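Something for you to look into today, if you have time. Just paste the record in under my message, thanks.
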Amino acid sequence: MIRIHPADNVVIARRQLLGGTAVEAEGFAVQGLVPPGHKIATRAIQPGEAVVRYGQVIGTATQAIAAGQHVHTHNLAFSDVARFGEPGSGALPTEHVAEPATFDGIVRADGRIATRNYIGILTSVNCSATVARAIADHFRRDIHPEALDPFPNVDGVVALTHGMGCATDSEGEELRVLRRTLGGYARHPNFAAVLVIGLGCETNQIQGLIAQEALTEGARLVVFDIQSTGGTAKTVARGIEVVGGLLADANRVQRQPVPARHLTVGLQCGGSDGYSGISANPALGAAVDRLVRHGGAAILSETPEVYGGEHLLTQRAVSRLVADKLLARIAWWEAYTARHGMKMDNNPSAGNKAGGLTTILEKSLGAIAKSGTTALVDVLQFAEPATPRGLLFMDTPGYDPVSATGQVAGGANLICFTTGRGSAYGCAPAPSLKLSTNTALWLKQQEDIDLDCGGIVEGLETVDAAGERIFRLMLATASGRRSKSEQHGYGQNEFVPWQLGAVM
């Protein structure tokens, strides 16, 4: 068993338990079969009574629960409990270290720092996706290794395509957010240069993108469209020629030690389980605390997956203004889901529930552990630049590819992704590290997981020690160490801008 907080009336099974198993430390015997990672009542809980985990309410009992019984979806439900906390009451000033850590970064001509060195091909609209992919495929190391052999300092040529860009309001929010996302990628320091390819007649005109995002065409940003170029074959040929001309300059980079303040880490969790809030998430939080003390920044996101635990963040806000910005996004999500006939408790997913999570309150409390303990310094809209240093919150959906796309557009140059069910995620141009919550998953899926936090569950490692390992892995990866997802070639298909509006 794992007891998380003295006030909890449930504990967590470390392995599958059979009925009759005595739990002497808690004074009860298990009633029935309990899967690993799931909850067990430590005492009798009456119908309508709060069920408490992490010292916080995660829902209310829908029927009488006896000590030793399995607590899950059959007897526990979401409850919209009061969630209040004075903004700033838990915010403490960050004590920065005297000698910040460094990583080996790539210093761009304008002083920005990169962790990778790609050439990117962006599309204004879905209609130019095939052309963009054909250009990038010409430079794929697994298909045409000779194309990039002379350029060992170039990490690759990637096409980031999407299904949007037309049949939408030309003055609407969806187009503004898409352009903000594309603009963030076009400016990302991990791209040595970027091509933007359009069809020509789409709503998302390239010049409109350039104007909104204050981009400048030149050697680092080349734009053209299929209709003006003369069709598919001519556009592919032109793209290959342009990329070929950019490679030599992109290859002229050297890594050099730079302070950790140049590291911006996007925080993600997907395929969560009952151990996520016990092992990998708090361990990542310990790494985030280190990163912030060393001057860096971390971006917590997935607004529907902090729902019910937002008071833990507003209490850490540096001001009431920052707290109110977060609460405003929560209110937006409540209205948004209601408008579409959904509820905020539609999350967790089927896999989350199989892993032991029951309500969104339970999932949110575990998810927030990724953020560590430092002050919340700002709240950002989707894909807004993550300029301040420290802990930031970016409003995104809970769907991981969309959420991480917003973080990278905001400037994240590394992603840390915890998982208890297994994930094969990766993104470009920012490397993604995957952290397992339990050792069984690590043993089964080592080809996809970069670091195991399961020793915390088994009592073999402390959260703080795991946090130190994660922090050191962050620095090594930012210095060029390839993640498992990079080794597999993930990253192009995981670019998923947030589609907000109607398709007309």
About this structure: The radius of gyration is 24 Å.
